[in-house]
Specification:
The complex is a heterodimer of chains A (about 240) and B (about 270). Chain A has eleven helices and no strands. Chain A starts with a helix and ends with a helix. By secondary structure, chain A is mainly alpha-helical. In chain A, helix 3 runs parallel beside helix 7, helix 3 packs antiparallel against helix 10 and helix 7 crosses helix 8. Chain B is globular and about 45 Å long. With about 270 residues, chain B is an alpha/beta fold. Chain B is built from nine helices and ten strands. Helices cover about 35% and strands about 25% of the residues of chain B. The longest helix of chain B is centred in the last third of the chain and has 16 residues. Classes of the chains: A mainly alpha (about 240), B alpha/beta (about 270). Chains A and B meet through helix 1 and helix 5 of A and helix 2 and helix 3 of B.
Chain lengths: ~240, ~270
């Protein structure tokens, strides 16, 4: 891995992300809008839910949409011959994947900051300390690896960036409905327990309840980390073997 | 005394004829794309051999689908040959690709640039990928821009570039790191006559600095004017190779296009 090359690629990826209005909307404005809307909807205590219940799910929800942007971005670079061109330079695939992963981690950190700050006026009262907040950030950064991995898998099986958008929902919807802010019934729980988003949300909820050493945090963090590493390794392997053609 | 650890490509067994005067050596190269299900195999490159001297401007001519881009893609490591040997600067493409990538510059047929970045940002990115320092990139960019002038557009996002400007940027990106060997795949397609002439001047300037240029084109005039030698490829086979003037004399015709017609019975531009 070459730090100089990775830094150059990281800069390119960040510029690419922040100069594309669709990505800016999807990654930053959409979570912000959603937080505000949920804030208004769940601000009424009679409704039975509060921002303290929905906020952890909103963090995970925002992060899930990385699947779509990664899939679009890779399919687009492949369609335009950019991946082939990059492959003719001394760049290693580890430099490229490193840049991609770090750029998405930066994005997740921004998302978490936005959702966190916007949720506060709507009654989000996290009962945790500085380390808890740090742990929440770390959890979301680890969770973002699974989204990057699923984005790569989506790009591998998509023939164009347009198709990638549609196919990405195969991964987005189950993670959204079985593991973010949706109530999980006993029927849905077996499916939900397979979703990294469910475990990440469960661990986040426990962190924001101030119980940093609870089994929910430990098992949620462990599952999210293991699942994310497996998914990203699989995504990189599949994309390198079948997707970069 | 401890031994100096050699990188894999530096091991003597991986350096083929280190005193060779040739930048590119191709021996019995063959590429077959396997047909799926009901389709036949396609022989894209059929047992071709040629050698290109260092500092030579070599043209690779042929109609669309003749095997030009497949050959380039094998030489630059994007495709694996079915059989045969390709050697760049005394290194086998299969053994020392990472080293070869430091020596070559590739200008792809379809311009590949990041549309959300400016021309300058694109150039800088590729310079950095070749481990160039910022100052080196700026100096080299100034040099290249004197010949292939994109003017103020260099600071604009490439989204708004015309086809010709994108092509010029495509060439600048491929040569920003001052490579020893340049692979230019149809570099002037879609350029207006002024830009094309500027590009020709630029390609000539590469020769003056002793760069080896591997140029594919189906513009016969371009090859005649620029190249020291040309190889004519059709249906994956090299059917003639030599100096353009000598070939014209050999076949007693007026230009290279007529050479091709005399050998194959059709025009290079047919079917395009």
């Amino acid at each position: 891995m070459n730090i100089g090359r990775m830094a150059a690629l990281l800069k390119m990826m960040l510029l690419k992300l922040f100069r594309e209005p669709a990505y800016v909307f999807l990654m930053l404005l959409f979570p912000a809008m959603l937080t505000i809307m949920f804030g208004f909807i769940f601000a009424d205590p009679e409704f039975g839910m509060s921002m303290n219940v929905t906020a952890p799910g909103l963090f995970a929800y925002a992060c899930i949409f990385i699947i779509m942007t990664v899939a679009q971005s890779f399919a687009d670079m492949r369609d335009q011959g950019l991946l082939k061109r990059l492959n003719t330079t001394p760049m290693k695939s580890s430099d490229f994947m490193g840049g991609e992963i770090i750029s998405n981690m930066i994005l997740v950190i921004l998302q978490v900051i936005i959702v966190y700050l916007l949720a506060l006026p709507f009654g989000f009262t996290p009962d945790t300390n500085f380390f808890g907040i740090l742990l929440a950030f770390l959890l979301m950064v680890v969770f973002s690896l699974s989204s990057v991995g699923l984005g790569l898998i989506t790009a591998t099986i998509s023939k164009s960036s347009g198709i990638a958008t549609g196919i990405s929902f195969i991964f987005i919807l189950p993670q959204m409905f079985f593991g973010t802010f949706m109530p999980i019934t006993s029927t849905a729980k077996p499916i939900a327990s397979l979703m990294p988003s469910y475990h990440a949300t469960q661990a986040l909820s426990a962190i924001f309840n101030g119980d940093l050493t609870s089994p929910q945090v430990i098992s949620g963090f462990t599952f999210t980390a293991i699942a994310s590493i497996i998914i990203i390794v699989l995504g990189i392997f599949l994309f390198k073997k079948y997707g970069n053609k | 005394m401890s031994e100096i650890k050699l990188k894999s490509y530096e091991k003597p067994e991986n350096i083929i004829n280190p005193d060779s005067e040739f930048s590119i050596e191709v021996n019995n190269l063959r590429k077959v794309f396997r047909g799926k299900k009901y389709y036949d195999d396609i022989i894209a490159v059929d047992d071709i051999s040629f050698k290109i001297k260092s500092g030579e401007l070599f043209g690779f001519l042929g109609p669309n689908g003749a095997g030009k881009t497949t050959t380039i893609n094998i030489l630059i490591g994007l495709l694996k040959a079915t059989s045969g040997v390709a050697v760049i600067n005394s290194y086998d493409v299969n053994d020392a690709l990472s080293h070869i990538k430091e020596l070559i510059g590739v200008c792809p047929q379809e311009p590949a640039v990041f549309k959300n970045l400016t021309g300058k940002e694109n150039i800088k990115l590729f310079g950095r990928l070749h481990s160039m320092k910022k100052l080196e990139i700026d100096n080299r960019m100034d040099k290249l821009m004197k010949i292939l002038d994109l003017g103020k557009a260099i600071k604009r996002k490439t989204k708004g570039y015309s086809g010709g400007m994108i092509r010029q940027l495509n060439i600048i990106i491929s040569l920003i790191h001052d490579p020893k060997i340049a692979f230019l795949d149809e570099p002037t397609v879609g350029m207006d006559p002024r830009a094309r002439r500027a590009t020709w001047d630029f390609i000539r300037s590469l020769k003056k600095t002793n760069k080896t240029v591997f140029l594919t084109t189906h513009y016969i005039e371009e090859a005649e004017k620029l190249c020291d030698r040309v190889a004519i490829i059709d249906y994956g086979k090299i059917i003639e190779i030599g100096n353009p003037k000598e070939l014209i004399q050999k076949y007693s015709v007026n230009n290279l296009e007529e050479v091709f017609m005399k050998i194959t019975g059709r025009r290079i531009m047919e079917g395009m």
